[in-house]
Amino acid sequence: MRFTSLLFFAAFIGSALAEAAPRVEIQSPDGSISAKFIRMGATITQLWLKDKHGRAVDVILGYDDTTRWWTDPKQPYFNSIIGRYANRIKNGTFSIPITKYPQPPGPNVYQIPRNDRDGQVSLHGGEIGWDRRNWTLVERSRTSLTYKHIDNGDQGFPGVVTAFATHTVSNGGVLRTSLTARATKKTPLMLTQHLYWNLDGFQNGVNDTLGHTLQIDGSKVIEVDGNLIPTGKFIDVTGTPFDFRKPMLHGARLDEAQGLCGAPCSLYDHCWVYDKGAKAKQPVTTLIGEKSGIRLDITTNQDAVQVYSSWGLNITQPKAAHRGAGLAYGRYSGIAIEQQGLIDAINTPEWGVNQIQDPKKTYEWVTTHKFTTLR
Ligand SMILES: *[C@@H]1O[C@H](CO)[C@@H](O)[C@H](O)[C@H]1NC(C)=O
Ligand SMILES: *[C@@H]1O[C@H](CO)[C@@H](O)[C@H](O)[C@H]1NC(C)=O
Ligand SMILES: *[C@@H]1O[C@H](CO)[C@@H](O)[C@H](O)[C@H]1NC(C)=O
Ligand SMILES: *[C@@H]1O[C@H](CO)[C@@H](O)[C@H](O)[C@H]1NC(C)=O
Questions:
Q1: What is the pLDDT of residues 285-296, one digit of tens each?
Q2: Nearest listed ligand to the Cα of residue 204
Q3: How many Å lie between the centroid of ligand 3 and the Cα of residue 311?
Q4: pLDDT tens digits for 176-188?
């Protein structure tokens, strides 16, 4: 994205709009999909589709009172853009160029806040990641919004990163989100969008996603330790509860998946490496709601996907539209699906994955969510 005078003008109008209208809406011309946003984290707060009966369903978790995105201490990164480095970094430490953990102290060794796992891990960009920042709305139409964020490096990362997030809806139930970013210095850069799905919208007395059908085009999962930090090895999914190469119910292997995501956490909080990765033109993840018949097909330019079964979710007073089945979002109420790079590759040089952004290049992340209904 270029800094044209038009963009500066749009930025001026945009920030005025953002103040006046904390939540803005976009809708496809055919009415098949609409979404609402807040500027904190360039976050989607509502995503409305029609189920197989033609009823409107909000398919993502969140709050009606949008201030709870920044006031609820248990707010679990609901549907926000995550940066500058998504997921976990071992002990919040890395070096440039990258080296194997533990890095001996030196001028090229960086330390960012360890805000997870009793101070042993950095999660989602540090204490105040991009999801907690008030982005500026810089462009707006009936079908598309662009937010801008400048990360000045206050979490301890090198250099300044300027990022844009564009959300677009289009006919036939399509949501496309693209992220672009430029850095002033070499820095780790690995972004995601932390969407929490419940494609049934809690209708018909179902308050969890265990009966959602999931398919992932990945035959290996990153092996992690008890802190969910990579060991450097991969798990072959064959014959394990991780094998979603053929469609399988999200909760089908619950009995075998006790304690799997770091005891006592059960089911998944894991990173699948896509077999075709960024080269795939086909959807690489599919999710289907058992009651709504809403089918979500995801295409992305990312190499991997983190799936979190929401074991730790415990949020009272969910959206009014979601109170049908219970008074809280609890265990497995949502399933978080996050398109991203290989986790903590900056501490795992043996993988040969480059996540250090070159200031001469533009980082680009694109994911398309396509919704249809099964009859
Ligand atoms: C984590 O980093 C800190 C500060 O850099 C260091 O003192 C500590 O030993 C590290 N912890 C582990 C478990 O390596
Ligand atoms: C973001 O905006 C909200 C509402 O104006 C405010 O309460 C909050 O402190 C802001 N957050 C940051 C990090 O500036
Ligand atoms: C969920 O949170 C409530 C308070 O909001 C607490 O009383 C309850 O014990 C929590 N449940 C679990 C399973 O952690
Ligand atoms: C979900 O529903 C089950 C029974 O249908 C109930 O036991 C459970 O408390 C509900 N959970 C939440 C978080 O509302």
A1: 999 999 999 999
A2: 4
A3: 13
A4: 999 999 999 999 9
